[in-house]
């Protein structure tokens, strides 16, 4: 869990993803299209990816990918990110935390 906290604090936008997940691809594309430069961790490629995935599950993330943190705060998965985007809250949040 401590390693996860360090990873989350690294940058204003952190995405936990898997290359094999289509929703992960969609969320990464959304942020990249906005011009955000997120830190992206591909849990199916990195060392201790399963351990990090378990820590995300302990935080209540279900499913465990994609999971987005903005400004160190857990935003959630694809549904939560898309809801913020559709109600026009995502861009102001990204600006507030210096991601845009």
From TrEMBL:
- Cytoplasm as a keyword of this entry, yes or no, is yes
Query: Protein name, please?
Result: Glutaredoxin domain-containing protein
- In which broad location class does this protein mainly occur, judging by the first location in its UniProt entry? cytoplasm
Against PROSITE patterns, the record matches this protein to:
GLUTAREDOXIN_2
Sorted alphabetically, which NCBIfam families does this protein's record hold? Answer: GlrX-like_plant
Q: Which InterPro entries match?
A: GlrX-like_pln_2, Glutaredoxin, Glutaredoxin_subgr, Thioredoxin-like_sf
Q: Its family?
A: Belongs to the glutaredoxin family. CC-type subfamily.
Localization recorded for this chain is: Cytoplasm
Write down any Gene Ontology CC term.
cytoplasm
Fetch the PANTHER family from UniProt: GLUTAREDOXIN
> Pfam families attached here?
Glutaredoxin (PF00462)
Task: Read off the Gene3D superfamilies from this record.
Answer: Glutaredoxin
Q: Which parts of the sequence belong to the Glutaredoxin domain?
A: 13-75
Sorted keywords for this record are: Cytoplasm, Redox-active center
